[in-house]
Amino acid sequence: MQTAIPSKTSTHSDLSTQTYIDLETAYGANNYHPLDVIISEAKGVWVWDTNGNKYLDCLSAYSALNQGHCHPKILQALLHQAQKVTLTSRAFRNDQLGQFHKKLSQISGLSKALPMNSGAEAVETAIKAIRKWAYQVKGVAAHQAEIIVCTNNFGGRTISIISFSTEEQYQDGFGPFTPGFKVIPYGDASALEAAITPNTAAFFLEPIQGEGGIILPPDGFLKQAEQICRQNNVLLVFDEIQTGLGRTGKMFAFEHEGVKPDGITIGKALSGGFYPISAFLSTDEVMGVFNPGDHGSTFGGNPLAAAIGLAALDVILEEELPERAAELGEYMISQLQSIQSPYIQEVRGRGLLIGIELTVNAGGARQFCKALMKKGILAKETRENIIRLAPPLVITKSEVDWVLEQIEQVLA
Fold first, then answer.
1. 178 in any annotated domain
2. Annotated catalytic residue within 221, 239, 250, 274
3. DSSP annotation of 68
């Protein structure tokens, strides 16, 4: 089906695209490699650049925009709360936080929430909780706690988190590193069992690896991991920052195997793209290790964040976005798999988290992302040879069909 894309809107700027690029290059750190599109306006699944060109966003800010750009209900919650009170710090209570905690507990089945700001902060919070639980509850000797992680993991960019990364670039020049982590192959239950010692506190992993290349574990692995952890008094903690809140066709990706974790980290779509909000969710036993002063954040759990988070979660539930992702994701994956292309090695994913892995002789994914951009599709490469597709979950069937047409033209 053909979907018309107007070439111009009222977003036209007096500055040239190159001027914006030059400003960013001159005054910003060289730690990103973006496509050269200057976005100035967005709504739903669509964004416009400073020249008025329109694009369908197939990245969703790495799944932070599950509800689409500038969702009106979340915007209204932000505006309403911003006129009342935005920040109290946790030195005082506010009238939004308790409701936010309750909603997080209801959607996750975990009894306690500790809100932070960025996804990396949520992971750091989880690490601290896991370690203190190991010492106070499990009885691990002081400073000996171990956390098992997987190859190709990604949890953020702090020193502790890159300390357990297996990506060479993430560690290059940033040592010395934080000890206390063991790495096993992703999806290997036997390796997990062999790695556990009396000092093992937790197994921390992504139920689907996003930054690692949209890597799904073998069927049944998450359930096996749960059983192994239960048998050894080891916490099972999932990083659901990219995969959670509807992206994979369930509220959380661990639900595909009926697993009950001891903790999860969430972020990104927790605000629908309006504000940095994250949280570590866990049980009474794990959260019970914290005492006043053990951990905190000036902005974590502020009333503006809590109000936005409540609205963002309501949108996911009311608009049935997990169900939408399941239906459209299954359709999109099957259609992508039917494309006849010499460049496609594999299409894989779950829900609307999809990776197109290209063959070695394709010459890398970036050139294809640039070609898609010229056709009005914004996607991004990961691991050099994989095109990541993760459109907002509010995308329609006709918009999916239009995306598929453009992808087929570029790859076939």
1. yes
2. 239
3. -
